[in-house]
Amino acid sequence: MLTTTLDKDYQDMPHESVPCPLCDVPNDYVLAKRGYPDVPLINVLCRTCGLIRINPRMTAEGYEQFYQDDFFTYLNPYSRPAYIEEIERTTDDTYETPSKRLILPYIRDYVKENGNVLDVGAGFGQMVYILRKEKNVSFVGLEPDPGSRSVAKEKMGIDLLPIMVEEFLDTNTQTFDFIFMEQVFEHLLTPLATLKRLANVLAPEGVIYIGVPNGYDPQVPMALFYQLAHTYNYTPATLKKFADAAGLKIISIRDPLGNPLEALLARKDSSYPEEDASRMVAGSDWKDVARRLTRKQRINTLRSFGKKVLTGVFGNTGKERVRRVIDSLIRYRY
Ligand SMILES: [Zn+2]
Predict the structure, then answer these.
(1) Cα–Cα distance, 237 to 306 (Å, whole number)
(2) Distance, CA 25 to ligand 1 centroid (Å)?
(3) Distance (Å, rounded) from C-alpha 38 to C-alpha 104?
(4) What pTM value is reported for the model?
(5) How far is 261 from 249, CA to CA, in rounded Å?
(6) Higher per-residue pLDDT: 78 or 114
(7) Structural domains of the chain in order of their starting residue, each with its CATH number
(8) In sequence order, which residues have a C-beta less than 8 Å from that of residue 149 and are 6 or more positions away?
(9) Distance from the CA of 20 to the center of ligand 1, in angstroms?
(10) What is the pLDDT of residues 151-170, one digit of tens each?
C-alpha cells in the first residue's frame, strides 16, 4: 500500500511557496520532509495558528494534472478489493456500507427532505446515491477523477461533474441545503477561500459536513499521513478557526480525538447552537501538536526498523508471531 509508483515525477513539477491561509505570516515549523508515496514533501506546522500544510508545494496546474492522470493509481482502490466490493454494495438496501453505517446516522437529521445537496469530491457517488434514496434530494456531485466517475456511473447510475469545486463555483447560481465534503477538505489548494465561497451558496439553515483525517491524532502511519494529495491537515482547533474566518460556526464535532475528524458547520446567523468550546480545544497549542506528531513518527520509524530486523531473524511467519506478541504488550493499533 505504501509503494505506489506514479506516472510522473511530481517533485520535478513547478513548486510555489504558500503562506498560511489563516495567518498570512511565515512562521513555519518543519514537521516532515517525505510523504506518501515515498516522495520528497515538506509538511510544516504554522507556529501562529497550528495549521499543518505542505509548503512549498506543487502549483495548481501540477495538482490538476495529478488529479486527472494519477490520482486513481495513487489511491489504487483496486488493490483493495474489499473496499470496492463495499462501495458496490451501496445499491444493496439490505447491506450496511461504512457510509450508511458510520456517516449517515451523523448527518441524517441535518439533510432536508427534497433538499438540494452539493457533494464536493463525490468519489464513487455513494453518498449522493444514499441521500437521494433516504431524503429524495436533488444533487450536484463534483469529481475530477475520471476513474471514480466511471465507477459512479457504472455501479450506481450517478452522473458526476468532471470539475474542481472552484471552477464549479465560478458559474454556479444555486444554493444548497447540505454540502458534503468527505475526505476532501484536506485536498483543497485554497481551503479558506473555497470555504468562504461555499458559505455564500449555503442556504440560511444549510449545513456543511467536513470529514478529514485528524491531525491531532492520526490513525494511520505518519508515512501515509503526510501525503502529496493532502495539502492541509486539520485539528479540531484549526477547523474551528476556518469556520470562524468563513463566517460559519461549528455546530457539531465528532470524535475530536478519533479518526476521521468530522464536523458540521452552519452559518453564524443560523438557529443552530454552537458546539461546546471544550470539544474544539485539541490542537490549539502548536507545540503540543508538533510533539505528538514527532513522537508518532519516531514510533513508526522504530516499528518499521523492528519489522525489518524481525523478518531478517525469524522470516515472515515468525515475524508475524513476534509482532502479535509485541502488539499485545504495547497495545499498538497498527
Ligand atoms: Zn497560521
Answers:
(1) 34
(2) 7
(3) 34
(4) 0.89
(5) 16
(6) 114
(7) 10-64 (no CATH), 73-275 (3.40.50.150)
(8) 143, 160, 162
(9) 5
(10) 899 989 999 999 999 999 99
